[in-house]
Every structure is written in structure tokens, then in C-alpha cells.
UniProtKB/TrEMBL annotation:
It comes from Cohnella lupini. This is EamA-like transporter family protein. InterPro entries: AA-Vitamin_Transporters (IPR050638), EamA_dom (IPR000620), EmrE-like (IPR037185). It is a multi-pass membrane protein. Residues 3-132, 150-282 form the EamA domain. PANTHER family: EAMA DOMAIN-CONTAINING PROTEIN, INNER MEMBRANE TRANSPORTER. It is found in: Endomembrane system.
């Protein structure tokens, strides 16, 4: 069962790009951001009430607000980039998040970064650059894929801020109520500008688009539980690292199968480079290993 939960979480995250692209045929990116949090909060409320019989909201804590702002930025920039770019583009979020967390570990928490950590960070950066470039001429890069790469980079920074908040909050809160508090505030944050800037429904209303919005919320609300539960039930760390990072490969596969997005040699090469960096950072060294920022509970 633990392996099934791990696979569920991995597959759920890999479908985010396809689901956002499907939902964007009906509503704009602002509504998608709101729906991801709104339906996610509903899922969490139902889950936590069934599990605990009560809810414990903590909305006055500094790190709750920091995490909410980070996650809101993550979803906002990611959804805009997916709307204007390809459905596999969000594979850039994970390596950016990893590099930011690595620097945060050294800067904020004074943790020693090993040579292996710097090499892994370099692999991630090179992979992101290759994918962002994608063989495009410089003039086209500035107006096209360069913009989406910038947006995904900002989304990755927001995701890293959210993970840092989790690290601080897990000292005093359980992950379920922590994420409920963070996602509830994130819902309010992304909802605030909707009346002024959102175009609302921009295309035909379809069952597929509504289904995509709801599924995005379910992924936001429950995927991190599946992932955390798989780890808790004793899935070997090596398996977690390999299966967890295979998300990007599934994402590329779905984008090709569902939208026929062009998968170039640059996309494949860049992906392999940053996945190598992620795996290099994920596998612990037998001696003198550094303590990493724990992003195993980060929801996409």
C-alpha cells in the first residue's frame, strides 16, 4: 500500500500541467489559482474532520503568512506560465526550488553545503537554462520562452518559501492543520485581486475543464498526505528519490500525449541534467552528509 501511495502522489503531481492547460480553456489563470486552493481546502477540511473530528486553524503565526504568500506566488506564476506556454513547463519549478532551498540552508540555517551539494545545484541550474533556451534564437527568447522560464523561476522561488515555512511550522504543528491554515490564507490572497483583474470565464464551459479544476484542488489538498504516508510506512529512501523525481518524466509524457507539445532534444537533455542533480542531492552519503531542508511534504 505504501508504494501505491507514493505512486499516487507522483502521478498526481505529474498531471498538474495538463490539468491547468485543460482548465485554461474555460477560465483565466487567476480563477485557476483560486480553484486550486479553494477545492484543496475543502478536501483538507473533509479529510481532517474524518480523521480527527476537529480542525485546528492557526492564522496568526508569522510563518503561516510567509508560507501562504510563498505558495500563492508559486501557483500564480506557475498558472500564468502554463497558460501561455507548454503544459510540461512546470518541470522547471522543482530544480529552481531545490537550488533556492540549498542556498537557504546555508544562509538562513548556517548549514554546511558539501561539494556534492554545489555540484547538484550546478546541474539543476544548467538543466533549467538548457530547457529555457530550447535552441531558440535570442530575439525570440526575450519575447517567448524567456518569459515563461522567468515565471517558472519565480514560481520555484515561491514554492521554496512555502517549504521553508513548513520546516519552521512542523516544530509546533501537525502537517494537516498546518497546510489547511496556509492554504486557507493562500485562497484569500489569490482571491483578493480577482474582482479587478480577472476575466473570469474566457472560453466554453465544459465538464473536462470543471473536472480539471476540481482535480487540481484534490491534488493540492491530498497529494502531500499520500507522499508523507508512503515515507512513514517505510518506503526505502532510494525508491522515494527515484519515483518522486520521475514526476518530471511523466509530466513530459502527458504533455506529448494529451496536447502534442513539441519535445525537443534540448528539453530531454535539460531534464536529464537537472534530474541527475536532484538525484545526486537526494541520495544520502554514508559519511559527512549535510542536513538538507526537508521538502518531502511540499505540495505542488
Amino acid at each position: 500500500m505504501s508504494y501505491v501511495l507514493l505512486l499516487l502522489a507522483t502521478l498526481a503531481w505529474s498531471f498538474v500541467g495538463v490539468l491547468v492547460k485543460t482548465a485554461s480553456t474555460m477560465v483565466d489563470s487567476s480563477i485557476i489559482s483560486f480553484a486550486r486552493f479553494f477545492f484543496g481546502v475543502i478536501c483538507l477540511i473533509v479529510f481532517l474532520y474524518i480523521r480527527d473530528g476537529k480542525l485546528q486553524l492557526r492564522l496568526g503565526m508569522k510563518w503561516i503568512w510567509i508560507g501562504a504568500i510563498g505558495k500563492a506566488a508559486n501557483y500564480t506564476f506557475e498558472n500564468i506560465a502554463l497558460h501561455i506556454g507548454y503544459s510540461y513547463g512546470n518541470i522547471l519549478v522543482q530544480p529552481v526550488q531545490t537550488v533556492v532551498l540549498l542556498f537557504a540552508a546555508g544562509w538562513l540555517f548556517r548549514e554546511k553545503i558539501s561539494l556534492r551539494g554545489w555540484i547538484a545545484a550546478a546541474f539543476c541550474v544548467v538543466g533549467v537554462i538548457v530547457i529555457g533556451w530550447n535552441g531558440t534564437a535570442l530575439d525570440e527568447l526575450a519575447s517567448g520562452s524567456g518569459l515563461t522560464t522567468l515565471l517558472f523561476t519565480l514560481a520555484g522561488i515561491g514554492a521554496a518559501v512555502h517549504v521553508l515555512s513548513q520546516r519552521m511550522l512542523l516544530k509546533t504543528m501537525d502537517n494537516g492543520n498546518m497546510n489547511l491554515s496556509v492554504f486557507l490564507l493562500s485562497t484569500i490572497i489569490v482571491a483578493a485581486p480577482i474582482p479587478i483583474q480577472s476575466q473570469g470565464f474566457i472560453g466554453p464551459i465544459t465538464v473536462w475543464a470543471w473536472g480539471a479544476l476540481v482535480l487540481l484542488g484534490v491534488i493540492t489538498g491530498l497529494s502531500f498526505f499520500w507522499f508523507a504516508e508512503a515515507i512513514k510506512r517505510g518506503v526505502p529512501f532510494g525508491v522515494v528519490a527515484i519515483v518522486g523525481n520521475s514526476t518530471v518524466l511523466f509530466t513530459i509524457l502527458w504533455s506529448y500525449l494529451f496536447f502534442n507539445d513539441p519535445i525537443t532534444i534540448y528539453i530531454i537533455s535539460g531534464t536529464l541534467v537537472f534530474v541527475a542533480g536532484l538525484l545526486l542531492l537526494s541520495f544520502p552519503m554514508p559519511r559527512r552528509s549535510i542536513r538538507q531542508v526537508d521538502d518531502s511534504l511540499a505540495a505542488p
